[in-house]
Amino acid sequence: MPTIYLITPTYYRHVQKAELTRLAHTFMLVPNLHWIVIEDSEVKTKLVFHFLHESGLNFTHLNVATPSHYKMDSTDPNWLKPRGVLQRNAGLQWIRDNFDPDHQQGVIYFADDDNTYDIRLFDEMRWTRKASVWPVGLVGYLRYESPVVKNSKVIGWFTYWEPNRPFAMDMAGFAINAELLFDFPDAKFKLQVRRGYQESEFLSQLVTIDQLEPKAEDCTKVLVWHTRTEKPQMKNEDKFKKKGLPGSDMNVEI
Amino acid sequence: MPTIYLITPTYYRHVQKAELTRLAHTFMLVPNLHWIVIEDSEVKTKLVFHFLHESGLNFTHLNVATPSHYKMDSTDPNWLKPRGVLQRNAGLQWIRDNFDPDHQQGVIYFADDDNTYDIRLFDEMRWTRKASVWPVGLVGYLRYESPVVKNSKVIGWFTYWEPNRPFAMDMAGFAINAELLFDFPDAKFKLQVRRGYQESEFLSQLVTIDQLEPKAEDCTKVLVWHTRTEKPQMKNEDKFKKKGLPGSDMNVEI
Ligand SMILES: O=c1ccn([C@@H]2O[C@H](COP(=O)(O)OP(=O)(O)O)[C@@H](O)[C@H]2O)c(=O)[nH]1
Ligand SMILES: O=c1ccn([C@@H]2O[C@H](COP(=O)(O)OP(=O)(O)O)[C@@H](O)[C@H]2O)c(=O)[nH]1
Ligand SMILES: [Mn+2]
Ligand SMILES: [Mn+2]
Questions:
Q1: pTM score of the predicted model
Q2: Which of A32, A127, A174, B248 could pair with A143 in a Cys bridge, judged by C-beta atoms 3.0 to 4.6 Å apart?
Q3: Catalytic residue positions of A, numbered
Q4: CA of B40 to the centre of ligand 2 (A)
Q5: Multiple choice CATH, A3-242, 3.40.1400.10, 3.90.650.10, 3.90.870.30, 3.90.550.10
Q6: By the 8 A CB rule, do B211 and B176 touch?
Q7: Across the interface, do A141 and B17 touch by the CB < 8 Å criterion?
Q8: Mean per-residue pLDDT for B165-181?
Q9: Of residues A15, A117, A140, nearest to B227 (C-beta)
Q10: Hey, are the CB atoms on B254 and A138 less than 8 Å from each other?
Q11: Which residues from B are below 8 Å from A253, CB to CB?
Q12: Residue B82's pLDDT is what?
């Protein structure tokens, strides 16, 4: 059975451990996974290190920091500060360095840490030949975005925004065979890419539209949702401090 | 091994199925659970019905609608529109009707559909004698709220807001032995309760503070987080409609 390599960029914020916790639970239910977690950080944090070791999952822990000037708001609205770009590339590089395409079978999926994945999604992608595609829920200010399928072929894209992009898909909407990384050794994500074209530019390096394999019952089932978690306010920590009181114990990890 | 009865109120919104999906994944990893899901709805919806049947989990599916006048914003700021009150009571009633305290062992936990639960939390609560308590992350505008423990006894509450409430705890911070429902047959949640006193009023009917059993290493570990999910915008569905186009296919469930 091919191994599914999950590439997950992650960064520190208050909800990080909660997100990783429910994500790990999903992954615990799926056989033959290899979770590549790449922290957007100068160093590997204790939180993620211990979390991964305690999880019992098959994982690789990497880190690479997004350069701070890329994190600033760009003046050109066509370039957005990149999220997870260098981290996903680090994951791809790890696979190029550690996977043997002549003796192993593998599929690669970019699993952001805040999305929601139905475990049946992994059955759908497991036997990807080149690139599999499916709908993504709660994205693009729509109930879902999806490839448009006719006679089991992708013929276009159901999105409101720029459906004429070559691959008008969210990161959560496709998986690729690991072999492609060796057929196209330079393929990667770019720090500077036209806004909304990251996925499209990446896939253009690897496949053509006629090679796409529609999954999830010809793209009629939603098995992944682009959920986002509210940023919790900490205003009572500040109020404690203003009163000269310590607030929560920083030794208690959240 | 005592059965853990999870009481989960839930209501329709775009993220509902995603929330239930990741929640179910967590529960699939825990032995001897019984999931009581109560829809805040006049009828049982197809979405929840099919979801539960496909989950493979041991469940009971109930419904009771919150009366609409309780859902309106109250003019008195001390009374907040109740969330999940009648639903949790329906769950308690089901246990009173179906559980045999003379021949079964059970623990009850109120598991809201949007929180994040570490599976180790269920080990902590499994052997609750009266009521177990532990910290809850990301609640009360703090990193966490927690019982204050001294010599393995609860002596107070770490919260910013009204730490002098009898039980200054979030719904996610305690579990009770099912026997208590039979010792105190009238104990329940109230539709009208002083804002922020729902949990405290409920527990006051069942236990005294000296009976509380602190868990999670004397309340130093956070194993549950009061996460909240962003409400996704659907503005491009509206734009499709304004252009006279159909938008997403309503037969595709999200
Ligand atoms: O500064 C950042 C912001 C985000 N991410 C990660 O990149 C992915 C996509 O980010 P996010 O979910 O915030 O993007 P969106 O939900 O807006 O698509 C997630 O796995 C994040 O944890 C990151 O590594 N560094
Ligand atoms: O109208 C409502 C609002 C909420 N809930 C449920 O009640 C619980 C608590 O609601 P919520 O998570 O919105 O509350 P908060 O996060 O503000 O504590 C959750 O399981 C919800 O699904 C409900 O049944 N009906
Ligand atoms: Mn995201
Ligand atoms: Mn909630």
A1: 0.97
A2: B248
A3: 199
A4: 9
A5: 3.90.550.10
A6: no
A7: no
A8: 98
A9: A15
A10: yes
A11: 221-222
A12: 82
